[in-house]
Amino acid sequence: MIDKIIEQTEEFVRNQLGEDSTGHDWFHVDRVRRNAIHISKAEQQGDPFIIEMAALLHDIPDEKLNYSEEAGKQKLESFMETIPLKDVEKNHIREIIFSISYKGGHGSMLSSVEAKIVQDADRLDAIGAIGIARAFAYGGKKGQSIYDPAIMVRETMSQEEYRRGKSTSIHHFYEKLLKLKDLLNTETAMQMAEPRQQMMQSFLEQFYREWNGQQS
Ligand code: ADP
Ligand code: NI
Q1: Distance separating alpha carbons of residues 44 and 187, to the nearest angstrom
Q2: How is the chain split among helix, strand and coil, in percent rounded to 5?
Q3: CA nearest to 49, candidates 13, 15, 18, 7
Q4: What pLDDT is attached to residue 109?
Q5: Whose Cα sits closest to atom 1 in ligand 1?
Q6: How far is the CA of 138 from the centre of ligand 1 (A)?
Q7: Quick one: which ligand is closest to 64's CA?
Q8: Residue-wise pLDDT tens digits, 182-206
């Protein structure tokens, strides 16, 4: 029964996100699911079914992938109606999905261990080598530059500025990606973040060396 629901959810998500090129594609969702399962096992915490369902569905209502916030919610709701779960399970899955987003640091407090684990899993996929690739994919899609030294790094910003303000993909490292490791909830995710953080730091160092025309 549980396997069947997971399979049905995978198929739905695959169909919905398959074509996305902003870094929210099916492979992102699959990595988040695997990270989340790994964290849950290592921490010996959380309901594995709820974690897997929330990880699979976490980007479905994302406002960036829908015409409006309302349309995104509706998409998730229509799917929820097709799966045979208890209301408490559905509510828990919804609550995780709507509480984990970063939103320029304006995210909500997390109430359950499952939410903490899925949030960590999603954040791990925004850093490291994959995180670098996703940042430039997203930046390209939005039409933002790779880098512009004339633009200041925004230290504080509203949710609206975070989404719409002028920035570059290199700036995004300072505005979000490098900060994520200190915002993780679980010890396991903190350990997983270490090599990813180093990868971003050495990437940036080399980026500036090349930018400045240094030959070594
Ligand atoms: P969240 O919903 O948690 O705020 P997003 O959905 O905005 O995160 O981010 C999805 C992916 O796109 C992440 O890998 C993120 O780092 C990247 N991204 C988001 N905003 C930008 C940006 N302004 N420049 C480059 N990459 C970005
Ligand atoms: Ni995500």
Answers
A1: 12
A2: 70, 0, 30
A3: 7
A4: 78
A5: 102
A6: 7
A7: 1
A8: 999 999 999 999 999 999 999 999 9
- pTM of this prediction? 0.92
Query: 46-83: per-residue pLDDT in tens?
Result: 999 999 999 999 999 988 778 888 999 999 999 999 99
Is the shortest distance between the CB of 134 and ligand 1 below 6 Å? yes
Say how many Å lie between the CA of residue 101 and the centre of ligand 1.
Answer: 10
Residues 6+ apart with CB under 8 A from 2: 49
Q: Which of the ligands is closest to the CA of residue 143?
A: 1
Name the residue with tokens 């509480």: 99
User: Measured in angstroms, how far is the CA atom of residue 29 from the centroid of ligand 2?
Assistant: 6
Residue 160 pLDDT > 80: no
Could you tell which of 134, 159, 167, 184 is best to mutate to test the pocket of ligand 1, judged by most ligand atoms within 8 Å of the CB?
134
Instruction: Give the pLDDT band (50/70/90) at residue 104.
Output: very low
**Among the listed residues 59, 180, 190, the one whose alpha carbon sits nearest the alpha carbon of residue 127:** 180
Ligand 1, from 176, 180, 181: best to mutate by most atoms within 8 Å of Cβ?
176
* Token pair 């779960």 in the structure block, residue: 85
Ligand with minimal distance to 178 CA: 1
How far CA 117 is from CA of 154, 183, 185, 200, in Å, comes to 28, 12, 7, 22
